[in-house]
Amino acid sequence: MARKILVLNGHPDPSGKGLVPALADAYAAGATEAGHEVKRVNVASLQFGFVRSQVEFEHGTVPPDIAAVQDQIRWADHVMVVFPLWLGDQPAVLKAFLEQTLRPGFAYLYRPSGFPAMLLKGRSARIVVTMGMPAFIYRWYFRAHGLKNLERNILRFVGFAPVRYTMLGSVGTRSKKSIERWFDDMKALGRRAA
């Protein structure tokens, strides 16, 4: 079954060069080859600032670039997010993007019970994170805390399910052949888009 897929490149470098954008390209290519409809967002090329207060988060004007991405998320039934691990977590620009985008009223609603109404149910997600350290060290020693925060406390919180992830470690020491296998893996994931 063809799906509507939004690919989010969360690398803070707007040049579109490097491993993370290439992984996004491979995922999108695989999805397109399989007949899925694909839209792309390069987070670093968007114009938005940081949310600086609760009032702004809950009631502030959504920047135009963010409003356009919200429309794309409404359109999508699957979202792929790819980013490099920086200081154990997502880069600040990606976190700021998520804070701007997944606001109350768009992504969830407060309820008196304390449990939010999830407004983005019916969508699945794939997180792909690259890192310099071996992936098993991040998973075992650091408990993949930054990745799990994005998965559980952000995406699942607003209704994404299932949320799957792929960790690609030791990027600085990988052989060209190994990285080419990653591109093949991304194409395969894009074809499945689940």
Please give a structural write-up.
The chain is of the alpha/beta class. It has one domain (4-192): 3-Layer(aba) Sandwich (Rossmann fold). It is 40% helix and 19% strand. The protein is built from seven helices and seven strands, in the order E-H-E-H-H-E-H-E-E-E-H-H-E-H. It has a five-stranded parallel β-sheet, with helices on both faces. Helix 1 (19-33) links the parallel strand 1 and strand 2 (37-42).
Distance between the termini: 11 Å
Instruction: Please give the largest β-sheet.
Output: 5 strands, parallel
How big a fraction of the residues is strand? 15-25%
Radius of gyration over alpha carbons?
A: 16 Å
Fraction in helix? 25-40%
The CATH homologous superfamily is called Flavodoxin domain
Which structural class do you get from the secondary structure elements?
alpha/beta
Total helical segments: 7
CATH architecture: 3-Layer(aba) Sandwich
The name CATH uses for the topology is Rossmann fold
Count of folded domains:
1
β-strand number:
7
General shape: globular
Provide the low-confidence segments as ranges: none
- Output mean pLDDT: 96
Top CATH class: Alpha Beta
Helix-strand pattern: EHEHHEHEEEHHEH
The largest sheet has its strands arranged as: 2-1-3-6-7
